[in-house]
Write a structure and sequence with these properties.
Elements lengths: L1 E3 L1 H14 L4 H16 L10 H10 L9 E5 L3 E5 L5 H19 L1 E9 L6 H9 L3 E9 L4 E2 L13 E5 L7 E5 L6 H8 L10 E2 L5 E2 L2 H5 L16 E3 L3 H18 L13 E9 L1 H4 L5 H13 L15 H13 L1 E3 L1 H14 L3
Parallel strand pairs: 3-4, 6-11
Antiparallel strand pairs: 1-13, 2-3, 4-12, 5-7, 5-12, 7-8, 9-10, 9-11
C-alpha cells in the first residue's frame, strides 16, 4: 500500500474532475466525498472509483454541472430528478432539502431519481445527523445487476445500500451504512487492484462455485483494466442469506420503483442511483421525550458489554469509521499501487498534475 497525504490526494482528484468540465466547487465536492470514503475505511466507494467516473463522463452517463429538477413538491415530501448529475453534488442537494423540510414540518421524505453514483451513503446520513436529524436511506442502482438472490446463481439485484443516521447531543453521530450484498462491488474492484483480500464465499463464479477471487466475478485478473461491473460474468452473494436477499429485494421497491428511477434489470441502462430518504426531527416529533438521553444511555450500556476477545472493544455503529478517519488523516490514505497509478495516469492524459 502507498500512503498518500489527504491534501495531495484530494487536490489530485479535484483537478481531474475540473479538467473534465466540473466547476471548481463541484470538483472539490467530488474529491472530498471520494477521499472521505477512503478516510472512513469505505475504500470501495473511494478514489478507486475515479477512472470509472471519468469513463462515465466520457460516455455521457454522468453529466457535470447539471441542475436537479423538482418533479413533485408536497411540502413534507419532494421528488427530485437528478438528470444524471454527479452524485456527490446531488447527495448534498437532496439531504439539505430534506433537512430544511424536516425542520419545517418535523418529518420529511425525499425521493431522488436518476442520480449519478452517490458514493458512500453514510455520508448523507452523517450530514443529516449533524443537523440534528434522524435519517434513513434506501438506495438502488438502476442498470447494475450484480447480486444473486438467495438460492440462485444468476444476478437479479443491485448492491442496494442502506444507511441510518442517529444524532447524539454531545458526540459524533451513530451511523449504520452497508451494502445488501456480502461485499460491495467496489471492494471486489479494490481487491482486484491489490487491496484488502475479500472474505470467503462472497462471490458466485459462473459455474456456481463460491469464491473470494475477484477474477471469478469480473472474468479477468488483469489489474490494469477498470472492468465494467455490469459485464461481470460472476455474481455477488447477498448478505445474511434469505434475510439479506429479502432486504435487497425491498430496496429495489423503495429506492427504484417508488422514487420513479426504476428497478435494476437486464434492459435497464445507464447506471444511476435512486434514493428514498426519511428525515425526522426528534425534538419536533415528541418534545417531551428524552431522546438524546435514551440514545446516550443505551449506547453506553452496549459499550459496557464484556468483550468476547480480550483486548477488543465492543463497538457501536460509526466507531470503526471514526477510528480510521483519525488514523488516515494523520498517516495518509492507504492505496493499492494500481489505484494510485490509475489516478496519476489519468492526470497525465488530462494534462493536470
Amino acid at each position: 500500500m502507498e500512503r498518500i497525504p489527504v491534501a495531495t490526494l484530494t487536490a489530485r482528484v479535484a483537478a481531474l474532475f475540473a479538467a473534465k468540465g466540473c466547476v471548481a466547487a463541484e470538483a472539490q465536492d467530488i474529491a472530498t466525498s471520494l477521499v472521505g470514503a477512503n478516510l472512513t475505511g469505505h475504500d470501495s466507494h473511494g478514489v478507486v472509483r475515479v477512472p470509472r467516473y471519468l469513463t462515465w463522463m466520457d460516455e455521457g452517463v454522468l453529466r457535470p454541472g447539471g441542475e436537479p429538477l423538482v418533479v413533485t413538491d408536497g411540502g413534507a415530501f419532494v421528488v427530485v430528478d437528478g438528470c444524471q448529475g454527479l452524485g456527490q453534488t446531488l447527495g448534498r442537494h437532496i439531504v439539505d432539502l430534506g433537512v430544511e423540510r424536516a425542520q419545517a414540518h418535523g418529518v420529511a421524505l425525499t425521493a431522488l431519481r436518476r442520480a449519478g453514483h452517490l458514493g458512500r451513503i453514510g455520508e448523507w446520513a452523517e450530514r443529516a445527523a449533524y443537523a440534528g436529524l434522524v435519517s434513513i436511506h434506501f438506495v438502488n442502482v438502476h442498470g447494475s445487476v450484480l447480486v444473486a438472490p438467495f438460492g440462485a446463481m444468476e444476478k437479479r439485484f443491485s448492491t442496494a445500500p442502506f444507511a441510518v443516521g442517529v444524532p447524539q447531543a454531545d458526540r459524533a453521530p451513530l451511523i449504520l451504512d452497508f451494502a445488501t450484498s456480502k461485499v460491495a462491488e467496489g471492494k471486489v474492484l479494490n481487491a482486484m487492484k491489490g487491496g484488502k483480500t475479500l472474505p470467503p464465499a462472497c462471490i458466485i463464479a459462473p459455474d456456481g462455485r463460491l469464491s473470494h477471487d475477484p477474477a471469478d466475478f469480473y472474468g479477468t485478473d488483469n489489474r490494469t483494466q477498470v472492468p465494467a461491473a455490469v459485464e461481470a460474468s460472476g455474481a455477488l452473494v447477498a448478505m445474511g442469506d434469505h434475510k439479506g436477499s429479502g432486504l435487497a429485494f425491498m430496496m429495489e421497491m423503495l429506492g427504484g420503483a417508488l422514487t420513479g428511477g426504476g428497478v435494476c434489470g437486464p434492459d435497464k441502462a445507464p447506471v444511476w442511483n435512486g434514493m428514498l430518504s426519511i428525515f425526522v426531527d426528534p425534538g419536533r416529533l415528541d418534545p417531551a421525550n428524552d431522546f438524546h438521553g435514551e440514545v446516550s444511555r443505551f449506547t453506553e450500556w452496549v459499550r459496557s458489554a464484556r468483550p468476547r476477545l480480550q483486548g477488543e472493544a465492543v463497538e457501536v455503529p460509526g466507531d470503526s469509521e471514526r477510528r480510521l478517519r483519525a488514523e488516515r488523516t494523520r498517516d495518509g490514505v492507504p492505496l493499492p499501487p494500481e489505484v494510485w497509478r490509475a489516478i496519476v495516469e489519468a492526470g497525465e492524459r488530462l494534462g493536470v498534475g
